[in-house]
Amino acid sequence: MTADASRGAQAPPELVQLLTPEGERVEHPDYDIDLTPEEIRGLYRDLVMVRRIDLEAVALQRQGELGLWASLLGQEAAQIGSGRALTDADMAFPTYREHGVAWCRGVDPVNLLGLFRGVNHGGWDPAEHNFHLYTIVIGSQTLHAVGYAMGIQRDGAVGEDGAASIVYFGDGATSQGDVNESFIWASVFNAPVVFFCQNNQWAISEPLEKQSRIPLYRRASGFGFPGVRVDGNDVFACLAVTRKALADARSGQGPVLIEAYTYRMGAHTTSDDPTRYRLADELEAWKLKDPIERVKAYLVRNRLADQAFFDGVDAEADELGKDVRRRCLQLPDPGPMEMFEHVYAEPHRLIEAERAEFAAYLAGFENEGVEG
Amino acid sequence: MTTLTMAKALNEGMRKAMEDDPKVLVMGEDVGKLGGVFRVTDGLQKDFGEQRVIDTPLAESGIIGTAIGLALRGYRPVCEIQFDGFVFPAADQIITQLAKMPMRSLGKLRLPVVVRIPCGGGIGAVEHHSESPETYFTHTAGLRVVTCSNPADAYAMIQQAIRCDDPVVFFEPKRRYWDKAEVDTSGAADWLPLDRARVVRPGADVTLLAYGPMVKTCLEVAAAAQEDGRSLEVVDLRSLNPLDLPAVVESVRRTGRCVVVHEAPVFNGYGAELAARITEECFYHLEAPVLRVGGPSTPYPPSRLEDHYLPDLDRVLDAVDRAFAF
Questions:
Q1: From the record, what ranges are coiled-coil (chain B) (predicted)?
Q2: Which fold has domain B198-325?
């Protein structure tokens, strides 16, 4: 059974685009952006760097150094564009794939790798970067972002110089109850939150039509706030649309849903095999819309960067890759007693008793070693 | 000293916590104008405003999920889940996020969230309004689980739970909401720490271990047994995670017999953990195996049957008889 597409039919979806896949700058009536050549070169550098981190992480997983990696390949523009729209006061709530946003927030990439290597569940300080820990259960963080935004309201931090939260999630997550509840809460409390959905077309093996009969951005209207679809492979458009949404949220106009229309060019994670459920043709078509190539074309076309610049960025990326690899391999394994740490803030009798018992058990082996 | 019902004692405790700390919020379904379906939050929104006493949409996962976000921003939310059987839509946020996020952050994030849940049966309610889901939460590392049995403890414990930097699931025995007792509202000097059990009636022959609604039942059992010349000690556990094991062990080693009483089903119930711990710690002191009295392994029955389902004076006395028969 397939849905009758004529039921509830609407106008075809609109897409905000400021830079075509060929690198041509185009106008949009509602969104514009004025970037200096230096800022554009900065965005290009960001895109290249995060792709390089991602490539290194995939390689590390293939070599057995990471248990898993969730690649952002193809989603760099959505993440860098939105990530660079944030101010220091804004708070970001990621899924487990927002390595590009983490980069924008100044999180050391090695900390991301630590999670996938299994040395901890999240090794950075969310308050230091205003970048929350990765959330692995799909959609749960949308409610955290809305609650955080309600806290911003209660702090009186809405208005001029206000703050907002932004929450990342994927197309699959839009089916979760928590995401729908978060839309309701944000709406009725007019919370300063931006919902940033990266529609990468695939929820592991399930295509978008298993999640929705309508374009995802149109879901927002049913909840009573604006939704907009942006070309998720266009870093200019992602930056412009997110800036506007955040400004609206910070100034007290309430939530916005952004659907960044993009494509997961790699596997869902390193454990996945996309050849079982999608055609290579599809990937080839999306490669023509690559988020990095179009910025490069724009820079070249407008003589805003020369070969030395591109070579320099590539060299810097290679250094970054090597550095990330070196420091990943140096991450110390946690000691066995560390699992008892941080479970509770205040003393907890059961944890204390089990910690002492386990320490005594381990000490028994040490004695054996001495005697034997 | 003032005479308060347990519901009013909880209300006064939350009011005091809100006066003491402007970061304390109350949130849940119908907690504002209505004052909660049991009136436990009565008058709080009138006095503290809608920003601090929040009537939420009817979505339990949303209540806990947004409370987590508020806690991340520095607030101390006190969430009301309207009834025990309604907590399960929030179970994912409680178990997967609230309990685990502090350790996930290596201690950098703390979530001082209280989840208040009216629990237990005995009020003639329809399905899903009489359950005892405590072990789902005591089994979840990262949560503290406590329950009050009387107005004085209710007043103190709710304030201690709100001050605690860990998430606390706070069970309130709904059929005891209207029990009255003297409550000292003058200060915290005499409060027992939140994680300690209390001997509510000393005795020599059998230890009755209970919590929440069954403490009162066990006190009635002890009074009845006294007439038969049996001296029963009643221990109110108060904190289920962590368990005050030293208090339990001290009592059972003295009496040599132990009966655990709770409303929840016996199988895999909290009594199973108690029986195992007591066997490990008191093996040579026991005159009889640890016996358990609780609900059968059925869903909570229609209310016309609940008097048969719930442990009562006769069923507990019967278990005491069996403990003596060994």
A1: none
A2: Rossmann fold (3.40.50)
